[in-house]
Amino acid sequence: MVEVSCLCAAWCDTCNEYRAGFLALAAKFPAAKFRWIDIEDEADEVGELEVENFPTIRVTRGGDVLFHGTLLPMHSHLERLLEELIARPEK
After folding, report:
1. Is the pLDDT of residue 75 over 90?
2. What tens digit of pLDDT does each residue of 14-27 get?
3. How many Å apart are CA 8 and CA 72, to the nearest integer?
């Protein structure tokens, strides 16, 4: 299963504006699990993951990282990325 995580912070205005659209994409990709992770509230889970800017998106399948990085806060960019990544065959 593909897991799509958005690493953000509650104090970040960009994150707050991005959240609803990010979670709405879950309906378009029902085979994926979408997670909103606050890097401060869930710091133990974030651990050593690199977060240079917001929103940072992490897409994994099993133990494989398919994507990890900052995206412009435009849902269409994430949608296109997911269409490509989910279509890739598993290793």
Report:
1. yes
2. 999 999 999 999 99
3. 13
